[in-house]
Amino acid sequence: MGTLNIKGTEMLGEQIIKGMAVTARNFFGSYVSKERLTTVQYPEERLTPKENTRQFPFLVYDGDDWEKGMRCVACQICEKECPPQCIYIVKSKDKKPDYKGQSQLYPATFDIDISVCMSCQICVEVCPFDAIKMDTEFELSTDDRFGGLLFTKDKLAKSNEHFRKIHPTEAAAVDEHLAGEKARAEAKAKAAATPPTNPAA
Amino acid sequence: MSAVAAMPPKNYEILPKTSETGEPIGELLEISMGPHHPSTHGVFRMDVVLDGETVVKLKPVFGYLHRNHEKIAENISYLGSMPYTDRLDYFCSMTNNWAYALTVEKLAGLPVPERAEYIRVIMAELTRLQNHTCLIGFFVQDMGALGTPLMYAFREREKILDLFESVSGARMMCNYMRFGGVRCDVTPDWLAQAKQLVDGYGKFLDEFEALFTENEIVLARTQGIGVLPRELVVNASLTGPMLRAAGVNYDVRKVDKYGIYGRFDFKVPLGEHGDIYDRYMVRVLEMRESLKILQQALRDIPSGPVMDPKAKLRGFRPKAGEAYGRIEAPKGELGFYLISDGSANPYRYRVRPPSFINLTVLEDMCLGHRISDTVVILGSVDIVLGEVDR
Fold first, then answer.
1. Residues of A in contact with B164 (CB under 8 A)
2. Which of A170, A196, B20, B228 yields a CA-CA distance of 20 to 30 A from B38?
3. Which residues are CB-neighbours of B196 under 8 A, at least 6 positions away?
4. What is the rounded distance in angstroms from the CA atom of residue B233 to the CA atom of residue B239?
């Protein structure tokens, strides 16, 4: 481009007029072309969220009963890996069967303080049981300053149907993975149950 | 005017305007362009001593956004500080992530698959585009453009942020790079959308440039102001567009060739005078070079994995040692210095913030100019307080 050192020469303002032509093109163009009118009149209009968008975590449960079907086994890995340490878990004293039939612990208390949570998704990445996933709801403001933003287990539990609705591709992959795990566990159980044939006979 | 109003009040002494020898006398005015200020790009304070309107002394005061990033990193794992690096220079989270991932990969000796390298370059150049566009928008707003060009800049930035959201889940705090690759792959759909954006960006840049590059007001306010001579720039260890505007040919992408930058054909724009106008032009030309890099990267991206499947997320313990990794962030050279003692947390974690180091010459640039030039000079330095204060 070179140096436009026209300081000191006569400046008549023609480039300013050309600049105004750009502004006018944008302004009048916004009546004609959709590309120039980008304002979304929130909250009457809303943008459709992207599929991968993430806001705050929630706990997934299979089936209809949120306490019996919850996948979380209170391993506390997400609590340890969470960078701002906003997850608080207390293990239960008894066990309940999980989707594979094995009896596992469950969280008696599972609290996430979403005023601390920074939506980094590390808890989702490290969970070995696909029990915690990211929700897309962000209109969560409340005026209850003492606990309005502390989500307990019942508020965090949402069904697998909800997960399939908000993240279809991710839910399909998780369902496939868990079905594979279940099939493998059943095959192992069947092989252990049938008596072994005697090769010497 | 009545005679009563024309009389000065009784307890007010009118001082003579000039002394006996004819020199003007008076007091210097000290202003704190305080942390609450619409033009200081964040919570940043400048103590300015003025003689009339001319700046005689200037002291930058920062630390209002200090969040203990380096201390927090000593207490959490290596992966746990990745989301905190997003929040350093909050406009450019992808490049911050890349600098940190590069340093840890140097420390632990992790290889990166090729597709991940291409994706990293694409994300970094998209970040550079949106950073420079918004910077020009803020810069002309400081000069009085009342925000309209800023809104054009944000309209284009929204398209890039939409791309970031579809791949990583968040618009600004992406948390996308991992040690040894990136977190998840990009779909062919995403690549097509990115290509469409890159193809249309040149036209937007032409329109945006037509507003400023030859505009008489911009020229009058930026040429010859805030000049930094070459020796001062090199001695003060400035980096980024400020260094290149003074004529020093140093771009970390060409010097280190980190990642796969050696494969791309792009030029490094240099300025001549080192004033504000040169910094603005260097950034505009850098945006066009970024478009070239993006077109090459989107054309050549291979298929393959984006992360080593055996890489450990938890329990990552690099061997004891130290590493310094740096990249050409949009603001300058962003470096991370890590010392590991073999445990899961770093022993020392240090960020070399380009905005902070570029701010040290603010006084040299502003002396002798007027106070309204101070605002424009600060705008051209391109600071983000999240990075200055960490």
1. none
2. B228
3. none
4. 8
Match 């700046």 to its residue by tokens.
B55
Asked if residue B13 has pLDDT above 80, the reply is no
Q: Which residues of B touch A4 (CB under 8 A)?
A: 213-214, 219, 277
pLDDT for A141 beyond 80 = yes
Chain B positions in Cβ-Cβ contact with residue A48 (cut-off 8 Å): none
- Cα separation, A155 vs A59, in Å, equals 9
Q: Look at residue B7 in the predicted model and tell me its pLDDT.
A: 55
The number of helices, as runs of H, and strands, as runs of E, in chain B is: 16, 8
Q: What is the 3-state secondary structure (H, E, C) of B67-126?
A: CCHHHHHCCCCCHHHHHHHHCCCCCCHHHHHHHHHHHHHHHHCCCCCHHHHHHHHHHHHH
| Cβ density class B33-47: b for 16+ within 10 Å, e for less | bebeeebbbbbbbbe
A96-100, B2-6, B105-109, B289-293: least confident range = B2-6
Amino acid at A124: V
- Strand arrangement, sheet containing A132-134: A132-134, A57-61, A157-159
- Write out the residues of chain B at the interface with chain A, using a CB-CB cutoff of 8 A: 76-77, 79-84, 148, 152, 155, 158, 162, 165-170, 173, 175, 183, 207, 210-217, 219-220, 223-224, 272-273, 277, 281, 285, 313-314
Give tens-digit pLDDT for B103-114. 999 988 888 999
pLDDT for A166-176, tens place per residue? 888 888 999 89
Query: Residue A102: helix, strand or coil by DSSP?
Result: coil
Model confidence pLDDT, tens digit, residues B347-362: 999 999 999 999 888 8
Contact assessment for residue B82 and residue B97, using Cβ atoms and an 8 Å cutoff: yes
A133 bridge partner residues: A58
A5 vs B contacts (CB less than 8 Å): 223
B-chain CB neighbours of A122 within 8 Å are 79-80, 83, 175
pLDDT at B189 over 60: yes
- Give the chain A residue whose CA is nearest to the CA of B165: A53
Give the integer Cα–Cα distance in Å for A76 and B314. 13
Interface contact B224-A6, CB threshold 8 A:
no
What is the chain A residue with the closest CA to B174? A120
Return the amino acid letter for B282: V
CA nearest B324: which of B342, B334, B332, B336?
B336
- B191-224 CB burial, b ≥16 within 10 A, e <16: bebbeebbeebeebbeebbbbbbbbbbbbebbbb
Give the Cα separation of B388 and B239 in Å (integer). 14
Structure tokens at B102: 């590069």
What is the structure's pLDDT at A3? 41
* Separation between Cα atoms, residue B58 and residue B48, nearest integer Å: 4
List the beta bridge partners of residue A157.
A59
pLDDT digits (tens, 9 = 90+) for B264-322: 888 999 988 888 999 999 999 999 999 999 999 999 888 888 888 777 778 888 888 99
Q: With an 8 Å Cβ cutoff, are A120 and B76 in contact?
A: no
